[in-house]
Structure formats: structure tokens, C-alpha cells
Specification:
By secondary structure, this protein is α/β, with parallel strands linked by helices. It has two domains: about 220 residues, 3-Layer(aba) Sandwich (Rossmann fold); about 130 residues, Hypothetical Protein Yjia, Chain: A,domain 2. The strands form two sheets. It has a seven-stranded parallel beta sheet with strand order 3-2-4-1-5-6-7, sandwiched between helices. Strands 8, 9, 10, 11, 12 and 13 form a six-stranded antiparallel beta sheet that branches.
């Protein structure tokens, strides 16, 4: 029996590998899929990159159907840990009712090379006997994706090995920018289908359609990567780009709502070029909020159902940056206590007020940028 086959009475579980560069919208997509009937019994494996695990806290799936891989570094053994996680999930699937699943989603970190994970899903006898790599979905940032392709080899490789290219943030990106990105992606991987997503919304049927992942349909360059046996070997940890760094910061006190919004907008406005990604869970006046930002694109803070770590209510932020100093960012935390003269416990985030505040900050950023250019 081939390693890619399984007994007829034990059908293999389909796997969707979701990859894409930093901040492209992978976690948003995963959460949207998990809310759809076709994905309600899915398991999730999340590969994080940072000193403090955050991504798994933002994924809405029962903990018995989730595994977190390698939260500390970009390491050569990540694909092996993904395999171990999938096998562990499969072992528990038969014996624990609340751990049963019929589909698996694997979300890579934004700086990860997806090829080793693809290889182990396709060729490892233990894994491929239980799992079938159904699709590789690469999420391309509709706002920043073209620049990612120009500046980061990881982004190019992620696009080249996909059978589905999902362009995110179509609701906020200009039409010309989206057309340029679509053309670049088509040049890199003409055989891949392209889908669009706004706020992560996508047709579940379109995501699931098609058969097993077919290597022969990949580009020549992608096939070279997939067939390179060196990717199956463990390598020492190394940064994909020496100018890219990751660090985690914690904040013990409560953060005021105006202070959080002010801090995020100022950080993006003055340091956006080097802010590849910031993601975290913050204590906004006693309540947990998820925050995300990619360069100058800031998501509205989203309330979480509750604290998952008992009495630990520290704010935890993970940064992936280029050319930014950790102490410089830490000094900006002084903005957290800003309260804008309103009652301390006025914690309701009104979308119209948030949008108005952002419009004001955009004007401020534009004025500042013009002043710098004219110095």
C-alpha cells in the first residue's frame, strides 16, 4: 500500500494548509471558516512566531481540537511538530467525543516556509496514512501584498506553492492595487485559482472544492522547492530576514480605551513602515480585547468573551518588526493612561466614534508626513 493511501474503512482526513505573509488575514479567515457549517467539526493547528503565544487565543475552536506549535522561533523542526500535533489529535479523536473532527486546518506563521509542512503531509508514512493534503491556501494582503512580493522571498514562495490564492481586505484596498496584486500573483502562479475576501468572508464551497493536492499542477519553481529533500532535514533556528525581529511586551496595569486607540494610531502613523505585525490581547479597563495591526492598517479592537488564564490579566503584545527598537516601543506605553477627559468606565466601543477618531489621526499623520518631506 502506498504511503498516500489508507484502508477503505478509514478515510483520510482532509487538511487545508493556510499560509500567507504577516498580517495578511490568516487568523481572520480561519475564524470565519470555523463559523460555517462545513467547518464546524474542524481541528486547528496553529504555528506561531513570538515569545508569547497569542494566535491560538484568537481562534474560536474547542481547546481539545487545537494544537499550538513552536511559539518561540522560526525553527527547522516546525514541520515535525505540526506532524506530531496532527497525529496526537488523531489519536484523541477516537477516544474523546469532544475531540472528534472530520477536517483539519493548519495555519502557518507569517514568516514560515510552508514547503516543509507540505512535504511531511505528502510523504511521511504515519501522517499521510491518516491525512490528505486537500488544498494549500495562500492569503495575500490586498493592501500590502504587492510590496510583500517585492521585498520578501517568503511571500513569493507562499504564493508559488498554493492552489488557491485568497486576496484579503478587498473592502479597504483600492481597485488598482487589487488588480496589480492579482496580476503579480498570476505571473508567479498562473495555475492557482484566485478568490477575494472582505473581513475574511469567503464561500466555504469554493474553499473546499477540488480533489487532492496535485504536485504536477504547481509551477516548476514550486516543484523544485517541494522536491528538495533538504527541507525535510532539521536546521538550526535562523531569521528569514536579518532585518526582521520579533519580541513580546507585557503591560501589568489596565489600559484606558482612548489610550489604546491613541497608542495604536500613533504607533502605526509614525512607525508603520517597520511595523510588519502587532497582535495581542490587552486589558482595557478590566476587559480583554484583541488587537491587530499591520503597518498602517489597524483593526478595530474586538472584545473577547472572557479571560482564559484565570487571574492573569496582563496585556500581552507580540511584535514582528523591521528596524524598530524595543525600548522605543516600550516608551510609547505612556499613551495607555490617556483618558480624553471622559468617565473612566465608559468602555463601549462605538464604530462611528472609532472611525471618527481614526479619520482625525489620518489627518494628523498626513500633516506630519508633509512636514517631514519639506524639512
Amino acid at each position: 500500500m502506498s504511503v498516500n493511501q489508507a484502508p477503505a474503512d478509514f478515510p483520510r482526513i482532509p487538511v487545508l494548509l493556510i499560509t500567507g505573509f504577516l498580517g495578511s488575514g490568516k487568523t481572520t479567515l480561519v475564524n470565519r471558516l470555523l463559523r460555517m457549517p462545513a467547518f464546524e467539526r474542524a481541528a486547528v493547528v496553529v504555528n506561531e512566531y513570538g515569545e508569547v503565544s497569542v494566535d491560538h487565543r484568537l481562534v474560536d475552536v474547542p481547546r481539545r481540537r487545537m494544537r499550538v506549535v513552536d511559539s518561540g522561533c522560526l525553527c527547522g523542526h516546525v514541520h515535525e511538530e505540526v506532524a506530531s500535533s496532527l497525529l496526537d489529535l488523531h489519536d484523541r479523536r477516537a477516544s474523546e467525543p469532544d475531540a472528534r473532527f472530520d477536517l483539519a486546518l493548519v495555519e502557518t506563521s507569517g514568516l514560515a516556509d510552508p514547503v516543509p509542512i507540505m512535504q511531511i503531509l505528502l510523504t511521511d508514512p504515519a501522517v499521510s496514512a491518516k491525512y490528505e493534503l486537500r488544498s494549500v491556501i495562500t492569503v495575500a494582503d490586498g493592501v500590502h501584498g504587492s510590496r510583500h512580493l517585492e521585498e520578501h522571498l517568503e511571500s513569493v514562495k507562499q504564493a508559488a506553492v498554493a492552489d488557491t490564492l485568497l486576496i484579503s481586505k478587498t473592502d479597504i484596498a483600492d481597485t488598482g492595487v487589487l488588480d496589480d496584486l492579482a496580476a503579480r500573483l498570476a505571473a508567479i502562479n498562473p495555475g492557482a485559482r484566485q478568490l477575494g475576501a472582505a473581513h475574511g468572508e469567503v464561500d466555504a464551497g469554493a474553499v473546499l472544492e477540488g480533489g487532492s493536492f496535485c504536485l504536477s499542477q504547481r509551477s516548476a519553481e514550486a516543484r523544485r522547492w517541494l522536491n528538495d529533500k533538504s527541507y525535510a532535514a532539521t536546521t538550526p533556528p535562523r531569521a528569514a530576514d536579518p532585518s526582521i525581529s520579533t519580541f513580546a511586551l507585557e503591560y501589568d496595569g489596565e489600559i484606558t480605551l482612548p489610550g489604546l486607540v491613541l497608542w495604536m494610531n500613533l504607533l502605526a502613523g509614525f512607525r508603520g513602515a517597520g511595523l510588519l505585525r502587532v497582535k495581542g490581547i490587552v486589558n482595557v479597563e478590566g476587559l480583554p480585547y484583541a488587537i491587530q495591526a499591520v503597518q498602517t492598517v489597524i483593526s478595530e479592537p474586538a472584545p473577547l468573551a472572557g479571560w482564559q488564564d484565570g487571574d492573569d490579566r496582563r496585556s500581552r503584545l507580540v511584535f514582528i518588526t523591521r528596524g524598530m527598537d524595543v525600548d522605543e516601543i516600550r516608551r510609547t506605553f505612556a499613551a495607555f493612561s490617556f483618558n480624553a477627559g471622559r468617565a473612566r468606565r465608559n468602555l463601549e466601543i462605538r464604530p462611528e466614534n472609532y472611525a471618527r477618531f481614526r479619520e482625525t489621526m489620518e489627518l494628523f499623520r498626513g500633516t506630519t508626513a508633509r512636514a517631514i518631506r519639506h524639512r
